[in-house]
Amino acid sequence: MQWCCTTFKGYFEEAGNRGLATVVERLGTGEPVFLLQFRSIEMGQEGPREYPHPLALGSQTGIIFCPWCGRNLERFYQSEIDSMVRPMYTLVD
């Protein structure tokens, strides 16, 4: 696969791990969505117990352009999107 940049590739390979990652998913309409995701803990682990305040263990937001090289992601990866989709790594459906 040809990557838009090595940084995007590196964060794509981090999906499911603690920290920053890029994730690709398809919406119910079939439209691809690229996500920039952050996890406070490893996937599958529980957060701290008895914490007195609400605590977000992860967050994600959609992106259109690569944050590192600026390429339009859907356009650049149009022929590779199906091989990039990994719904198990999204935080919510």
Which structural traits does this protein have?
93 residues, 3 helices, alpha+beta, 3-stranded antiparallel sheet, 16% helix
Summarize the structure.
The chain has 93 residues and is of the alpha+beta class.
Structural description of this entry:
The protein is of the alpha+beta class and 93 residues long. It has one domain. 16% of the residues lie in helices and 24% in strands. It has helices at residues 6-12, 73-76, 81-84; strands at 19-26, 32-39, 58-63. The chain has a three-stranded antiparallel sheet. The protein is elongated and about 45 Å long. 15% of the residues are buried. The model has no long low-confidence stretch (mean pLDDT 90).
Q: What structural class should be given to the helix and strand makeup? A: alpha+beta
Measured as a percent range, the helix fraction is: 10-25%
Low-pLDDT ranges: none
Mean pLDDT: 90
Number of strands: 3
State the end-to-end distance: 27 Å
Number of helices: 3
Sheet bearing the most strands, described? 3 strands, antiparallel
Going across the biggest sheet, name each strand in turn.
1-2-3
- Integer-rounded radius of gyration: 14 Å
- Provide the succession of SSEs: HEEEHH
Cα shape: elongated
Beta-strand percentage? 15-25%
- The number of distinct structural domains comes to 1
